[in-house]
Design goal:
The complex is a heterodimer. By secondary structure, chain A is mainly alpha-helical. Chain A has helices at about 5-20, 40-65, 65-100, 105-125, 130-160, 180-225. Chain A has 6 helices and no strands. The chains are: A mainly alpha, B mainly alpha.
């Protein structure tokens, strides 16, 4: 096992232990739910980073086609979806106990829903093309196109919006960086790195599996021929 | 196969040499408009679709007696326009036979093809939206308070719907077998949600008769989104090119 995998385990253990047992400031309404800062927010950070990696691999694929880059883009997108769904679940649960509802029509929530829809559509597109090269190219093009069309909604619109229920108005859409308690920072930053590394780890394992599968298919094809 | 995929592709020799990009776009656009005019049945079909949907909604609303409330009026109008856009986009790039496509590729630049298609789709959707809006207001009432803003919004909104769907329809057409229409809707909707959110918001402002400067921000966002989508289509279409 590589060193960063031990680091991932250590960071996530630290996040979970300190996240549930550590000190958090007493705040009205939020109460203990603010511990979600260690789970929901870093998961979305990780999702953004991994989806960015997926798009970069799609761009690399178009510049220089190879099945390796296609697999990298595909598996990163899948991990991104996993982290996104976890982020939605934790966020929804949090919203239930602070806002009193599972879902509202907030700019940031809309952005989250669109991201999930885009990557679900990406998977549908991959599923409906049989030829491998065609599938790789079409999905790479769609990945880049949808990502660029969704960026305004995810990163710019929340910053422009006049009103949003979501924490962190007038700055970072996730939280307000100026009023974050310094004790919470000590857990939050390791949590961001930990969850992102976990995403990278999942992607790495999935990619290795895909590479092996590809090799097996090639061998079988050779035997048939 | 690999040699076909590599990019940049050989330029110029067989193409319309010495013709500038705008001129090429103009020729392709004229070609599309002519073709559309010669096969008027397709255009008539789309118009009939819009008219029919409006009439069905009118019948459904009058069942309870009376006109829909303003928010429902607004939502319904954009849903009708959304599906008209999906229907229109499903025809343009999607229905060209592969041989014809191959011919275009030997005579025109990919950038010109996609830009001409975006303009053509925008024009097509505008010709659908205008009579659609007319029939809609005649049958379902007219709660709009500032018509200038509403008309401008419909125009920009129709252009945005068309431009966002053009490249997606080209992708869906090449993915083929998954049933072109469904795939187009699945791929197109996530991309269209941002556009629709902004458009419906401006539309609501127009219905409430709010002053122009309230809608200025969202309107500029919409136009900026159009530029992003146009630029990304311009860059990506050459890769979709010879499949």
């Amino acid at each position: 096992m590589k060193w960063w995998k031990y680091l991932t385990i250590a960071l996530l253990l630290y996040t979970v232990v300190m996240g549930f047992l550590g000190h958090v400031p007493r705040l009205a309404i939020l109460n203990e739910t603010e511990r979600n800062l260690y789970f929901h927010v870093p998961m979305w950070f990780g999702m953004t980073i991994i989806l960015l990696a997926s798009v970069i691999n799609s761009v690399r694929y178009l510049r220089n086609p190879s099945s390796r880059l296609d697999i990298l883009a595909h598996e990163s997108a899948k991990t991104g979806i996993l982290l996104g769904v976890l982020g939605l679940l934790t966020g929804s649960l949090w919203a239930r106990y602070t806002w009193g509802t599972w879902w509202t029509t907030d700019v940031k929530l809309n952005g989250a829903a669109v991201t999930m829809l885009i990557y679900a559509a990406y998977l549908v597109l991959r599923g409906s093309v049989r030829d491998e090269q065609q599938r790789a190219r079409l999905s790479a093009i769609y990945n880049i196109f949808a990502f660029s069309a969704a960026i305004p909604l995810l990163f710019i619109m929340p910053r422009l919006a006049e009103a949003s229920l979501h924490p962190g108005m007038g700055g970072n859409p996730g939280f307000s960086k100026y009023d974050l308690d310094s004790a919470m920072r000590l857990v939050f930053y390791p949590a961001v790195i930990g969850w992102t590394l976990l995403g990278v780890w999942i992607t790495e394992v999935a990619c290795r599996l895909a590479f092996v599968q590809e090799k097996i298919y090639e061998k079988q094809e050779k035997q048939l021929a | 196969m690999l040699s076909l995929i590599s990019y940049p592709q050989p330029r110029c020799e067989p193409y319309l040499c010495g013709v500038s990009l705008p001129a090429e776009i103009w020729h392709l656009l004229l070609k599309d408009l002519r073709l559309e005019w010669r096969q008027r049945t397709a255009l008539a079909g789309l118009l009939l679709y819009v008219g029919g949907t409006v009439y069905v909604s009118y019948l459904s609303f009058t069942l309870r007696g009376g006109l829909p409330p303003a928010p429902a009026w607004n939502a319904l109008f954009w849903v009708i326009l959304l599906f008209a856009a999906l229907g229109a986009a499903g025809r343009g790039l999607a229905q060209e036979p592969a041989g014809l496509r191959l011919y275009y590729y030997t005579v025109a630049r990919p950038e010109a093809v996609i830009l001409a298609k975006i303009i053509y789709n925008a024009l097509l959707l505008l010709t659908l939206a205008a009579p659609g809006l007319l029939v809609y207001t005649m049958l379902l009432g007219n709660p709009v308070q500032s018509w200038g803003l509403f008309a401008a919004n419909v125009a920009v909104g129709a252009i945005s719907l068309a431009s966002s769907l053009t490249l997606v329809s080209a992708i869906a057409a090449r993915a083929g077998q998954g049933g072109g229409g469904t795939l187009l809707a699945v791929l197109g909707l996530p991309v269209l949600v941002p556009v629709l959110l902004i458009v419906v918001k401006i539309s609501k402002n127009a219905l409430d008769g709010l002053p122009w400067d309230v809608s200025q921000g969202p309107m500029l966002t919409l136009i900026a989104l159009n530029f992003i989508v146009g630029a990304v289509s311009y860059v990506l279409f050459p890769f979709l090119w010879r499949t």
